[in-house]
Amino acid sequence: MKRILLLIFITLFTHKVNSQVNCPYAVDTTFTVDMNGNSSLYLFNMGDFLIEDDSKIVVCGNFQNMLNTNLLSKLIRLNQDGELDPSFHYNVPPGLTNSLGVSRLTKHNGQYYIGLQTSPGVSRLFSNGSVDTSFQCKFRNNTTNWQWWTITAIYVYPDGRILLAGLFQHSGNKSEGLVRLNSDGSYDSTFHSTKVNYLLSRIHPLDNGKFLIGGYESDSVPSRNGLWRINADGTLDSSFNTGSANYSIAYYFEVLPDGKILSTGDFIIPPNNNHVIFVRWNKDGALDTSFNYFSGNGALVGFVMHDNYIVTAGWLNTNVPYRYTMALFDTLGNVDSTMFGQWGPDSTSFYQGPSTAIFRETSDGKILICGAFNSFGGHPTFGMARIYKKTVGILDLPSSSSSEFTLYPNPISSILNIEFNKAEHGSIQIFDITGKLLETRTVNELSRNYSMSTTKLTSGMYIVSFESNITKQRFNKKIIITRFEN
Questions:
Q1: Is residue 444 domain-shared with residue 331, that is, in the same domain?
Q2: Between residues 170 and 241, which one has the greater pLDDT?
Q3: Domain contains 2
Q4: Residue 192 falls within a domain, yes or no?
Q5: 192 and 141 in a common domain
Q6: Is 307 left (phi over 0), alpha (psi -120 to 50) or beta?
Q7: d(CA 274, CA 269)
Q8: Is residue 444 located within the same domain as residue 298?
Q9: Do you find a cis peptide bond into 409, omega within 30 degrees of 0?
Q10: Shortest CA distance to 133 belongs to which of 143, 146, 120, 148?
Q11: Cα–Cα distances in Å, from 171 out to 89, 139, 143, 150, 176?
């Protein structure tokens, strides 16, 4: 069973969270990337990674040597503790210049497929990192004068064909956001490529053979605003329409078990045309209005779903100068203040600011994060960090003496009544003593009273947690539920 991602009641009951002490995560200091002691010589910009079955980590990016003493490869493999695996030898394909890196990475039938930022565009590698020369990427062919391209996503079909997302510009100033290759690397002219004026960034295969595609605002078709669904042949599926949002950019998205789509990006939502950076769509592309859109200045990028919570990061205005920070949300879109603005990639010694790009869950329930940084949460590690959920015992917490709200009756048998000392609205959550989230309710309108049924809960001790949308503070109290037998 996955460990619960969030124990929000580790915060002091009447204290506004404002320090790293109350952050629900910690850096795993047993994982450190230092490139055998030479990391300080490199500009690290990790673009993508995958976790192997043996827990080793293959990482691609642009690892530029700052002192020109030992140019590091664009593709590396790390051991489980972050140490460089010397048995993996990636040979730079012919034509790949040292100044450009590898942008994307995937694996199929034991071989790696990597997206390059220059010719030949895509390479296929054996498991030890050597180039498979039988695969020749030829989307730059004799009939189409391709001028330049950027590969941002790779999907390999079961039969070995390859779907690429990005920006592929050719003669006549035409551009394509999707290109499909045959299994030998040749250009598949039967695929109806989506035409765009900027790049597409993510491919998600669906069970019916269709694909969801995310990226920057595309052409003038009203249904193309940051997220599109295409048929198996590449043509647009007009039954999926995100036209309810105006100018839109989707940085990253995931399809949820119920078919809805969670996405970070920059979306302008009518009628007030607010900039929203976290949104949820229904199956047909319509906005899910039950989700509390996160708006404001800044941007969120990648994220990972863990049980019923969302771990993400972004460049955010946290009432202090902009900084890159981790952020935590529940499934309704409510931000949790225990992490927001307090913790994350906190230093870089190079020209760019610290950032994160991609999140992946490990087999033991921890989270790997890659990006551009040389320190994360105070721990020196270059370009990649591993974090884990702190374990805090709920029974060790004292009862709240706060007068912010009152629970009655206590013990209770059926209906829980909550009385606030002033009109409030916010989020109410109930946890069991192991930290498992059992109930979430939203107080949408200002009120001093709220009632909810507890008949689905068995006898025992629970924690009721309330986070105010007004003060951004969180308060917790214990309750006892008693079921009387007839």
A1: no
A2: 241
A3: no
A4: yes
A5: yes
A6: left
A7: 5
A8: no
A9: yes
A10: 120
A11: 37, 13, 10, 16, 11
Same domain (yes/no): 340, 416: no
Position with higher pLDDT, 56 vs 328:
56
Three-state secondary-structure class, residue 9: helix
Q: Rounded distance, CA 130 to CA 89, Å? A: 6
Residue 359 amino acid letter: F
Q: Residue 272's domain spans which residues?
A: 8-389
- Report how many domains make up the chain: 2
Secondary structure E strands in 11-143: 25-27, 42-51, 57-65, 75-78, 102-108, 111-116, 122-125
pLDDT tens column, 191-224: 887 666 567 788 999 989 999 988 875 555 555 6
Q: What is the pTM of this model?
A: 0.71
Interval 326-342: pLDDT, tens: 888 888 888 776 666 66
DSSP state of 296: S
- Claim to verify: residue 117 and residue 219 sit in the same structural domain: yes
Nearest to residue 201, comparing CAs of 387, 27, 47? 47
Q: What are phi and psi of 40, to 5 degrees?
A: -65, -10
69 phi, psi to nearest 5 deg = -105, -30
Question: Could you tell me if 130 and 114 are in contact, meaning their C-beta atoms sit under 8 angstroms apart?
Answer: no
The answer to whether 322 touches 299, Cβ cutoff 8 Å, is no
Contact between residue 114 and residue 162 where contact means Cβ atoms under 8 Å apart: no
CATH number at residue 234: 2.130.10.10
CB neighbour list of residue 393: distance below 8 Å, 6 or more residues apart: none
Please compute the mean of the pLDDT values over residues 436-449 and round it to a whole number.
84
